[in-house]
Amino acid sequence: MLGGAHNFAVDREIALQIDRMMPGLRAGARVNRAFLGRAVRFMADQGVRQFLDIGSGIPTVSNVHEVAQAVDPECRVVYVDRDPIAVAHSELMLADNDRAAIVRADMRDVEGILNSPQARRLLDFDQPVGLLMMLMLHWIPDEWEPAGLVARYRDALPAGSYLAASHVSADHVGSRMHRAAEMIKESGSRDQLTVRTHAGVLALFDGFDLVEPGLVGCGEWRPSGPADVSDEPMMNMLLYAGVGRKP
Ligand SMILES: C[S@@+](CC[C@H](N)C(=O)[O-])C[C@H]1O[C@@H](n2cnc3c(N)ncnc32)[C@H](O)[C@@H]1O
Q: Ligand 1: residues whose CB is within 6 Å?
């Protein structure tokens, strides 16, 4: 959806199918990526110098460590993904960066992630952490209790830490998003989409105080220029985006 070389025929096929059904989805992916950059810069501006990015995916443009270390080269980043290909590509990209590393783990293994050698080396849990779950929590079905999982991370982080998250919703695109979820199911992917409402996504920020403008469409979260929004208004609303601070 973002272009680049780190993708496979099977990914391109399903992306094409969904793009046909929801024209402009590529712009939606770009808008999410732009939000990620703004959220990291926002947290860095608040003094955060360490980031834990859960469900980081295959590296693409403007990765978290690139954005954060452009603000301050001392920023440290731990990426987490369960997908071996995402992990392999990330390891290659980070080979020369001693302030960033990736952990291969399922996000449900909270203790394993927080106690991993990478997290122990790079993160100081007495200092605020910028926790990212971008395009991530919709892969966590309700029966896994995503709010409870987020709370376990929140409880391990000190006051002044942040959660930045984006999440698909059908609130503005209606049944097409549910159809996209079905397509992903039919593709046999192990990752299955759970589409949530505004209230459902808001509940995932429990225990964090949302910063202005709250939980809004991705393109509405403090856009700083035309590159941060899509010409297609619906694509700015396809994903909910928010940043919350642990009081
Ligand atoms: C759509 S990508 C998001 C990439 C990136 N965060 C972004 O916003 O561009 C979602 C990633 O979450 C990962 N993922 C899904 N379920 C996961 C889980 N239970 N634990 C760890 N990673 C998971 C997938 O492997 C995939 O790489």
A: 32-33, 36, 55-57, 80-83, 86, 106-107, 134-136, 139, 191
